[in-house]
């Protein structure tokens, strides 16, 4: 066994300890001159000499020595489970992550890691997003991915899932950073995306296989989402949102933050509008981000009216009363002057023709 492989195994042993964070593990390796040396020299008196080491961590390390055979068995199991363990000791560890404070000392990976030779953008936003926000996130991600930009997000419901879909449907890879083990799809509703990304992109996590999606994991994983990217795009976010935590981390890491503006009366736009007010870049089209990345957009996305020349007169009339933000059926009928029953039939024709989308409870909006 090579020296590097030995070090990786002892590093894996440390990473499996739930009481130790990335900074502490790195400090131990530097203090003892290696991770095998850390194991061989663990004594309470010695550990107390390390600056910042808490008694809880000292006790956890002393107790953890007996778990080496168990973690060695778990290490051997990774290959059978088609999971890679990638560490800062490895040449394929992402260079972008090496640049951030508290970079993870171990990543569990299914599929591939984002390439360091291509630009990357993290797309994040509200879990309880609007249909308009999801549509916008998907279009932005597709346009960026078409220009060879890697799309990174967290596989959450709402904006995250829409961003992954956009990249994958454009025929390009996407990458998800999880707040649980890479063998767990959370939320389960996004299993289709999860499975597709194991083949076209990658699933990665700092947390070991079988780790549950605990609430405390997600702020930790957010630093990896932003750390893997050159820029972060926030599509929709409330005033207090995990997406804003990601944006704050991105700024601390020296990444550019973009936000899509929205109506000042919309709760889902409050976080984005505040980011812009505080100095984030406004993103109204993918070209805004591509320009920052130094990429000339070949096919710029623009929110535009669909060509309605082929529509019937009633369809054209109804279409003119719609907006990109969904309206309720009753409001559409009142504004157009048409009976509700006629509106429903006409809207169905527009939906089948790909001009209109329908969200819950009879809300309709123009497709982008």
Task: Outline the structure in words.
The protein is α/β, with parallel strands linked by helices. It is built from 17 helices and 12 strands. Helix 1 (3-15) crosses helix 6 (68-80), helix 8 (131-146) packs parallel to helix 9 and helix 11 crosses helix 12 (242-252). The protein has a 9-stranded mixed sheet with strand order 1-2-6-5-4-3-7-8-9, sandwiched between helices. A 3-stranded antiparallel sheet has the order 10-12-11. The chain starts with a helix and ends with a strand.
> What is the end-to-end distance?
56 Å
Model regions low in confidence, pLDDT < 50 over at least 5 residues: 298-306
Form type: elongated
Percent range for helical residues? 40-55%
Number of strands: 12
Secondary structure tally, helices: 17
Strand order of the largest sheet: 1-2-6-5-4-3-7-8-9
The H-and-E topology, N to C, reads as HHHHHHEHEEHEHEHEHEHEHEHHEHHEE
Largest sheet: 9 strands, mixed
Query: How many whole angstroms does the radius of gyration measure?
Result: 24 Å
Please state the average pLDDT score: 91
Strand content: 5-15%
Structural class of the secondary structure composition? alpha/beta
Task: Please outline the helices and strands.
Layout: H1 3-15, H2 22-32, H3 35-40, H4 44-47, H5 55-64, H6 68-80, E1 84-86, H7 95-98, E2 107-111, E3 120-124, H8 131-146, E4 150-153, H9 159-169, E5 174-177, H10 191-199, E6 201-205, H11 217-227, E7 231-234, H12 242-252, E8 256-259, H13 267-277, E9 281-282, H14 286-293, H15 313-320, E10 327-328, H16 329-336, H17 340-352, E11 356-359, E12 363-366
Parallel strand pairs: 3-4, 3-7, 4-5, 5-6, 7-8, 8-9
Antiparallel strand pairs: 1-2, 2-6, 10-12, 11-12
Helix pairs in contact: 1-6, 8-9, 8-14, 11-12, 15-17
